[in-house]
Design a protein that fits this description.
The protein has about 500 residues and is of the alpha/beta class. About 35% of the residues lie in helices and about 15% in strands. α7 (about 220-230) packs across α9 (about 250-270) and α13 (about 410-420) packs across α15 (about 480-500). The longest helix has 24 residues, at about 25-45. InterPro entries: GDP_Man_deHydtase, NAD(P)-bd_dom, NAD(P)-bd_dom_sf.
């Protein structure tokens, strides 16, 4: 045991430069070690070999995480030798033609992972080996460096989040009519929610429409989609847009509606397209909430009254911040309420039009509502998506209010809807005890406190003067025409359903 201890102490570690010059000295030390015994082991630490410099002990290390662009080499490096020159003591750097771990991605793109030297290498060698030639965008189309924002826009490639919603479907139709290639992001779910796009699948222009699975909560997925699509315009319409639901799912609403906009903007920057892409953020009149001024325009202070409004407020300001900080063509469209027959069934206007249709056909007796006196500025969604497109065609990025300039109560919407089927309402009672009866004396409207918001927004009315002056935009469908179209569409749909059941 003493011999083993002496041998371990007398044998010193050698650097590669000392391996040849100190070979004989080390051999003599090893030969004399067994004769020293246990006492020699203690004295050897005090009397060190002058020719052997002890090296620091080896330590396990974890490589630093790589940035999204450090994993790739540019096309200019494809002709590099298989092993690039390195400094002594460093690991050779493989060229892109020699991938460290082949994968379908590297085989398809020609890019390969950079093999970095160990952390104990010299600072100069490490800096040399860790400086890959990174293009402006590793996913870029050929000649991307020669594009300007104007020439890039001529490609007419649009990416839409929330494409299966009311606004997304109307915007898709508009862009296809204008010759765009349209890409949409849809969430993977147990049931398909593409009914608003089905009519497009039977047309020739469907060849210019593509759908991609994705989610605003998945930043990696967004980077992948943008890198593949290479859009010239991005419309962020996706959101958890139910105000009442946002009180019950506040964290999810913030993640999708607020941070989702940030992820999308960051994905554009990650792909190196921030100087080319035009970005539209769908803001909302709920930003104003309990605003003191009426009507509200771009200069009216915000005072949101729901988690939905607060999340959208973050999305609004992060869009402004990226515009000012990075020069991205990023604009906000502050859209007041806009409806259509494609409006979701759980929204108040569609809830009214469907109930009126069912009552007219004798399939429902009464509708149950919340606050009947809330004032809203309602317009047609088809007009408003044209406003979205005009926002991105403006010469400079900016923020615009899109509104009809008129406000109506929920009570007025109900009365107008029943007027479409030839019935007039009479109101009686107050508060939650208020009811609406038709000409025959039947109660067709009741109030339920469960449908009130925890923090109500009493009046919203927009001033779209800036959009009229700079964009040439104005709504073409009035309030009465909007209500009539929605009710007639739901009556026809309800009749078709009866025929299908029969």
């Amino acid at each position: 045991m003493a011999t083993s201890s002496g041998s371990g102490t007398g044998q010193a570690r050698r650097t590669p430069q000392q391996a040849d010059t100190n070979a004989s000295t080390t051999s003599n030390a090893d030969a004399s070690a067994p004769a020293t015994g246990a006492s020699g082991a203690q004295s050897s630490s005090a009397t060190a070999e002058p020719s052997a410099t002890p090296a620091p002990p080896r330590r396990r290390h974890r490589p630093a995480p790589l940035s999204p662009l450090q994993d790739y080499q540019s096309d200019d490096a494809l002709n590099a030798p298989a092993l690039a020159p390195t400094s002594p003591g460093t690991t050779p750097v493989r060229s892109p033609r020699q991938p460290v771990s082949p994968s379908p991605w590297t085989q398809r793109t020609g890019f390969a992972t950079q093999a970095f030297p160990p952390p104990r290498a010299s600072a100069t060698a490490t800096a040399t080996a860790r400086t890959p030639t990174v293009p402006a965008s590793v996913f870029a189309v050929p000649g991307i460096q020669h594009f300007t924002r104007e020439s890039w826009a001529e490609r007419k490639v649009a990416l839409i989040t929330g494409i299966t919603g009311q606004d997304g479907s109307y915007l898709t139709e508009l862009l296809l009519d204008k010759g765009y290639q349209v890409h949409g992001i849809i969430r993977r779910s147990s049931s398909f929610n593409t009914s608003r796009l089905h009519h497009l699948f039977s047309e020739e222009r469907v060849e210019r429409l593509a759908l991609h699975y994705g989610d605003l909560t998945d930043s990696t997925n967004l980077v992948h989609i943008i890198s593949q699509v290479q859009p010239s315009e991005v419309y962020n319409l996706g959101a958890q847009s139910h105000v009442k639901v946002s009180f019950e799912m506040a964290e999810y609403t913030a993640d999708v509606d607020g941070t989702g906009a940030l992820r999308l903007l960051d994905a554009i920057r990650t792909c190196g397209l921030d100087h080319l892409v035009k970005f539209y953020q769908a803001s909302t009149s709920e930003l104003y909430g309990q605003a003191a001024a009426c009507p509200q325009d771009e200069s009216t202070p915000f005072h949101p009254r729901s988690p939905y409004g607060v999340a959208k407020l973050y999305a609004y300001w992060i869009t402004v911040n990226y515009r000012e900080s990075y020069g991205i063509f990023a604009s906000n469209g502050i859209l007041f309420n806009h409806e259509s027959p494609r409006r979701g069934r759980t929204f108040v206007t569609r809830k009214i039009s469907r109930a009126v249709a069912e009552i007219s056909l004798g399939r429902q007796e009464c509708m149950v509502m919340g606050n009947l006196d809330a004032l809203r500025d309602w317009g047609h969604a088809r007009d408003y998506v044209e406003g979205m497109w005009r926002v991105l065609q403006h010469t400079t990025p900016d923020d615009f209010v899109l509104a009809s300039g008129e406000s109506h109560t929920v009570r007025e919407f109900i009365e107008s809807a029943f007027g479409v089927i030839g019935r007039q309402l009479t109101w009686s009672g107050e508060g939650v005890h208020e009811v609406g009866t038709d000409d025959a004396g039947r109660v067709v409207v009741r109030v339920d406190a469960r449908y009130f918001r925890p923090a109500e927004v009493d009046r919203l009315q927009g001033d779209a003067g800036k959009a009229r002056r700079l964009l040439g935009w104005s709504p073409s469908v009035g309030f009465a025409e909007l209500v009539r179209e929605m009710v007639q569409a739901d009556v026809a749909s309800a009749r078709d359903l009866i025929e299908d059941l029969n």
